[in-house]
Amino acid sequence: MSDLMTRLAQGEILVIDGAMGTMLQSRGYNPGEAPEIWTLNNPDVLRGIHQEYIDAGADIIIANTLGGNRPKSAKYNLDDRLTELNAGNVAIALEVAAAADRPIYVASDMGTTGEFMAPLGTMTEEQMIDIFAEQAEALLKAGTDFIFIETMMDINEAVAAVKGCYKASSDALVWASMSYNKGRRGKGNRTMMGNSPLDCAKLLVDAGVQVIGANCGNILSQDMPEVVTELKEGGAPYVVIEPNAGVPQIIDGKTVFSQSAEDLAAGIPAIIEAGANVVGGCCGTTPEHIAAVARAAGR
Questions:
Q1: Whole-model pTM over 0.85
Q2: Could you give the C-alpha distances from 212 to 60, 202, 205, 247, in angstroms and in order?
Q3: pLDDT above 60: residue 1
Q4: At what angle do helices 155-168 and 125-141 cross, to 10 degrees?
């Protein structure tokens, strides 16, 4: 068992960092460009963001590799630089983590391909597994502490990602998190594809995932405890929760997340009481939000 998982097994509550995309935009990134190549061209910006999250109290920082799979990279004509995109961003995160005065773990993000699996699309499960295995191999060779599959909206794609990670290495440490939206008309919280937290947890546990979570979506931190409860009922051994800084709004043509650090952090004690083991933030959160989360978690 890794030191990270030992700490969770001992009951320690850990803090994971916050948003990357909105932080990059605040530092000059243009959304029309692949964020993975932008940060390789602007490494000091990325180093600074990682350091700010560490200074805020994060125990885990996430490498900027969310879109580092072949279909996503191909949209920017970067699919021939897949290894470079993943390894380069992991190296920057590892460099910053190694310089810290306390243990900092590096997770490598793995996000959706943007493709639909059959029968809604043409992508087969085996093709999807191979896509994720390719990225996982690059991340693991780069030395990441673990792979964090995030912001998944289809449990079938999430399970394929897990299988891809284990195809790359049966010893890989893999976490997985789905994106849920607030239930309507009594239907409960669901992913965009209609998957419930309970069902997702069951399938991810069966796939071999120990840390299962929720991130992004429109569920505020104050409402996340019910998601945690469902994940635990589904058998999740450990739970990671990363809420957005409120529901996104379009103001003057820009996406704005208006929830303050204090308001987001106000929901953290109940999230932990419900059974979460790792807490942090997703879209719109900043080092200020993570500092408030760390304080609320007693870090």
A1: yes
A2: 15, 10, 8, 22
A3: no
A4: 50
What pLDDT does residue 258 have? 80
State how beta strands 238-242 and 254-256 pair.
unpaired
SS (H, E, C) the chain: CCHHHHHHHCCCCEEECCCCHHHHHHCCCCCCCCHHHHHHHCHHHHHHHHHHHHHHCCCEEEECCCCCCHHHHHCCCCHHHHHHHHHHHHHHHHHHHHCCCCCCEEEEEECCCCCCECCCCCECHHHHHHHHHHHHHHHHHCCCCEEEEEEECCHHHHHHHHHHHHHHCCCCCEEEEECCECCCCCCCCECCCCCCHHHHHHHHHHHCCCEEEEECCCCCHHHHHHHHHHHHHCCCCEEEEECCCCCCEEECCEEECCCCHHHHHCCHHHHHHHCCCEECCCCCCCHHHHHHHHHHCCC
pLDDT-based confidence at 24, cuts 50/70/90? very high
* Amino acid identity at 25: Q
Please provide the size of the chain in residues.
299
